[in-house]
Write a structure and sequence with these properties.
The protein has an 8-stranded parallel beta barrel with strand order 1-2-3-4-6-8-9-10, surrounded by 6 helices. Strands 5-7 form a two-stranded antiparallel ribbon. It is about 45% helix and about 10% strand. The chain is globular, with a radius of gyration of 21 Å. The protein has a single domain, classed as Divalent-metal-dependent TIM barrel enzymes (TIM Barrel), CATH 3.20.20. The protein is α/β, with parallel strands linked by helices and about 400 residues long. The structure holds alpha-D-psicofuranose (PSV) and manganese (II) ion (2 copies). The site of one manganese (II) ion has 5 residues, from loops. The site of alpha-D-psicofuranose has 11 residues, from loops. InterPro entries: L-rhamnose_isomerase (IPR050337), Rhamnose_iso-rel (IPR013457), Xyl_isomerase-like_sf (IPR036237), Xyl_isomerase-like_TIM-brl (IPR013022). This is L-rhamnose isomerase. It comes from Embleya scabrispora.
């Protein structure tokens, strides 16, 4: 039997970080459908993130993407976040939008472009300093479209060089989160395509370099929970970018495509001690809502992560270990499936009520009048990401 008080305490303590870009307009390669009331600047994105936190009680951090979220004074932005009851989370360095990056950023064959990219990464560490955030998240769109287009090993050397320069600039309490992605926008070869490459670079850099697992960045059929278990056991699981995929990097709501996979991932997190803040795992969302309303979609994702976490916490670890040890395949599997089949929504509703929150945060959002207010107040919202 699981200790239900321990389960409740773990759920109360869990923190989930939402991304600034999820609150702005975003779309597919074909069309961005603008929505009324979306934020016009980073200050309003933070206000929306704060609303998600106010309704869920577990989302007090918001990631920024630089330069999408460029402001003159980052300390001022951090103070604004604090006024709204949230904090700035990971700083995402964007080295994929300038024309100069056509052939790559830190792995570009032109030394001047590589310098420009590293310069931006270092400027992002300045943003960490100004906002008090811990994590610099690095995702590189770098890669090639055609065999022969670039030299794979040389590009790896350039990548290592750039990472080392940025790592040397970190202070003791800051980290690099290195994110990998199988393909897109490069279609033949990507410079950081998988967790193995990211892990190898992190090992070379040192203990302040850890891997970010974006759940949308793998080939179909990849066993993501294996990756999670491995990285966690080596102290190199730094963060998740949670989202769902049916085909490629779809960036849909977490747990929408495959809630069972999310449960399996959270089971490995729980099993490996990853819920303990000391493990340093940052539970972030990375989503782009292109047709659905943004704030309720973020709330849904936060709740979906909580549900998967609650089910993972309900796995009877002792019974599972005993069945595994006895070689009882069916019993071991049944322990997991029993936990997965538990309806944890009443438990989560109860926990919210204990905190003085509404039991159903999406319904509370709709009843609050916030959507109507921002629709009236904000005219001409921003585009969040690609093409911004
Ligand atoms: C790239 O696909 C990615 O997952 C990275 O995390 C970027 O920062 C984000 O998406 C941009 O939308
Ligand atoms: Mn991501
Ligand atoms: Mn992605």
């Amino acid at each position: 039997m699981q200790d239900i008080e321990a389960v409740r305490a773990a759920l109360r303590a869990q923190r989930i970080e939402t991304p600034s870009w999820a609150y702005g307009n975003s779309g597919t390669r074909f069309k961005v459908f603008a929505q009324e009331g979306v934020p016009r600047d980073p200050y309003e994105k933070i206000a929306d993130a704060a609303r998600v936190h106010a309704l869920t009680g577990v989302a007090p951090l918001v990631s920024l993407h630089i330069p999408w979220d460029r402001v003159d004074d980052y300390a001022h932005l951090a103070a604004h976040a604090r006024d709204y009851g949230v904090r700035i989370g990971a700083i995402n360095a964007n080295v994929f939008q300038d024309d100069a990056y056509r052939l790559g950023s830190v792995t570009n064959p032109d030394a001047r472009v590589r310098r420009k990219a590293v310069h931006h990464l270092l400027a992002c560490v300045d943003v960490l300093d100004a906002t008090g955030s811990r994590d610099l998240k690095l995702w590189f769109a770098d890669g090639t479209n055609y065999p022969g287009q670039g030299d794979i090993a040389t590009r790896q050397a350039y990548l290592a060089e750039a990472l080392a320069e940025v790592y040397a600039r970190l202070s003791a309490d800051q980290r690099i989160l290195l994110e990998y992605k199988l393909f897109e926008p490069a279609f033949y070869m990507t410079d950081v395509p998988d967790w193995g490459t990211a892990y190898a670079h992190c090992l070379e850099l040192g203990p302040q370099a850890v891997v970010c697992v974006d759940t949308g960045h793998h080939a179909p059929g990849t066993n993501i929970e294996f990756i999670v278990a491995f990285l966690l056991s080596r102290g190199r699981l730094g963060a998740f970018d949670f989202n769902s995929r049916f085909y490629a990097d779809d960036d849909l709501m977490v747990g929408a495509a495959d809630p069972f996979q999310l449960f399996r991932i959270m089971h490995e997190v729980v099993r490996g001690g990853g819920l303990d803040p000391a493990a340093g795992v940052n539970f972030m969302l990375d989503q782009c809502h292109n047709i659905e309303p943004k704030i309720p979609a973020q709330i849904r994702s936060v709740a979906n992560v909580q549900e998967a976490t609650a089910k993972a916490l309900l796995v009877d670890a002792e019974e599972l270990a005993a069945a595994q040890q006895a070689g009882d395949v069916l019993a071991a599997n049944a322990v997991l499936m029993d936990a997965y089949a538990t309806d944890v929504r009443p438990l989560l509703r109860e926990l919210r009520e204990e905190q003085g929150l509404a039991p159903d945060p999406v319904a509370a959002y709709h009843a609050s009048g916030y959507a109507e207010r921002i629709r009236a107040e904000r005219v001409g919202g921003t585009q969040a990401g690609w093409g911004a």
